[in-house]
Specification:
This protein is mostly helical. The chain is about 80% helix and about 0% strand. A hairpin with a 2-residue loop joins strand 1 and strand 2 (about 245).
């Protein structure tokens, strides 16, 4: 009986320990950013102080510096605007392209899809030179519209590849039955395929928006004016001045920018995982 009791609670205890370890590891960066945001400089730079607690009274000086001496809110607005537009462009191009390659092109659709995905693997350090020529010819230098033009070049290929695996998991019989009932191919796509594919579409949305907020090379290359900066470039450029690091303001800026993305990931976590795995499980 004693061995039976041990065998009953031991797996549960192991799961709790593993979950606790991962929770601490994942939450620690946010805790570090939060506590650094409100620490005084004398507390931050004193090596004798405990770095994980407040050794002196919290302060709002770092937040005042961030919002009063930088254009942080403008950078957040630029990033959000570019992210929304790029997400819309990516969905408009990748959803019909992925469906067409999955359903309407036969064996060549899969090969072409792989070829499109391979273009995503080309490093930005090789592409930003020819793309800068395109941006210059269109007169989009030092504007956020240059990023709106460039970012779909790497969000669309990956999204097409991802959605192809998702569309392949949907039985053709469902679409055939819908067309027998009177729907056109396009009508079956809108009324049947798209609602079923919500998990994959949400995955594309989260993936695309995350890439826009984290991308550095193109934003650094095409934009120089402070007012037009993206948050991922403005933070390290204007909060690191020579050998002076404004650690409190840096951590505050990173925390504010990362919280919405972390919230979205957690809100749609189940659908996000399904969007990445359904093609592999059912395809």
């Amino acid at each position: 009986m004693r061995r039976s009791g041990i065998s009953t609670w031991w797996p549960t205890l192991l799961k709790v320990v593993i979950l606790a370890i991962f929770t601490v590891l994942l939450a620690f960066p946010f805790y570090w950013m939060l506590i650094t945001t409100f620490k005084q400089n004398s507390d931050l730079y004193d090596l004798g102080n405990n770095p994980f607690i407040f050794n002196a009274k919290p302060t709002l000086d770092h937040l005042r510096f961030l919002f009063g001496h930088t254009m942080y809110l403008r950078w957040l607005g630029n990033t959000a605007l570019v992210g929304v537009i790029v997400v819309a462009i990516t969905l408009l191009l990748s959803i019909p392209a992925a469906y067409a390659l999955t359903r309407l092109t036969g064996r060549w659709g899969q090969r072409l899809g792989i070829g499109i995905f391979l273009s995503y693997l080309i490093p930005p350090t090789l592409l930003f030179i020819p793309l800068s020529k395109v941006v210059a010819d269109l007169g989009l230098q030092d504007t956020i519209w240059s990023l709106v033009l460039v970012y779909p070049s790497f969000t669309v290929p990956f999204s097409i590849w991802l959605l192809m695996g998702f569309f392949k998991s949907i039985p053709r019989d469902l679409e055939d039955a819908a067309m027998v009932d009177g729907l056109t191919r396009f009508g079956a796509f809108l009324r049947l395929v798209v609602p079923i594919s919500v998990s994959g579409i949400l995955t594309v949305v989260i993936f695309t928006f995350t890439l826009v907020t984290q991308e550095f090379v193109y934003a650094l290359t095409f934009i120089s004016t402070e007012a037009h900066q993206m948050v991922g470039v403005g933070i390290p450029i204007f909060l690191i001045r020579g050998d002076v690091y404004y650690w409190g303001s840096l951590m505050a800026a990173c925390l504010i920018a990362s919280l919405p993305i972390a919230f979205l990931y957690n809100l749609f976590l189940d659908r996000f995982i399904a969007g990445f795995t359904v093609g592999a499980v059912k395809g």
